[in-house]
Known about the structure:
The structure holds 2 protein chains of 2 kinds.
Chain A: E1 4-7, E2 10-13, E3 19-25, E4 31-38, E5 42-51, E6 54-57, E7 64-66, E8 76-78, E9 87-95, E10 98-101, E11 105-109
Parallel strand pairs in A: 2-11
Antiparallel strand pairs in A: 1-3, 3-8, 4-5, 4-9, 5-6, 7-8, 9-10, 9-11
Chain B: E1 9-13, E2 18-23, E3 31-38, E4 45-50, E5 55-56, E6 61-64, E7 70-75, E8 84-92, E9 105-110
Amino acid sequence: NAGVTQTPKFQVLKTGQSMTLQCAQDMNHEYMSWYRQDPGMGLRLIHYSVGAGITDQGEVPNGYNVSRSTTEDFPLRLLSAAPSQTSVYFCASRADGFYTFGSGTRLTVV
Amino acid sequence: DAKTTQPPSMDCAEGRAANLPCNHSTISGNEYVYWYRQIHSQGPQYIIHGLKNNETNEMASLIITEDRKSSTLILPHATLRDTAVYYCIVRVGGGYQKVTFGTGTKLQVIP
């Protein structure tokens, strides 16, 4: 039982490049979410999903796309990376009020 | 979900009890109080939760006031490994409401 797995752990992008941050969970949780964490800013919700085929925006959705084709996977896409998207990204799944977080992806956009 | 308010930072001497407060004055009757902590740059981890009764587990105790408008997380004997950011959130037990974590309380345990 791996919990929530995020890949990659580190990534450097050039401005304008696109990439997908991967998130997978093996706990059959319907709810999954993406957060970004900047120094001193706490965790800010980007997008979330309440089940396969259902996604919705969080606090800071601009510049990010998500899809949920399966219960297990919830990828986060950056279509055109900007330096303002330099951050640590956490994926989480949830059952009732209990969150399980991944170990994070540290993204730097230069 | 109800909004929570926590002090941005606190210090605690090693071996002493750490008492972390959280205000949630707009909490609804069916909303639970959950505490998580984030050590260094890891993902947050669950600590404890409660509805209206005080709760205790191997990690901590949770004291919820009678009017449920505030709560306190107690780490009975803080160690250096308890240095972390502690988040208090409130939400209903089930359902699909989105939750924001806020900035939490940075607890520094001092040798």
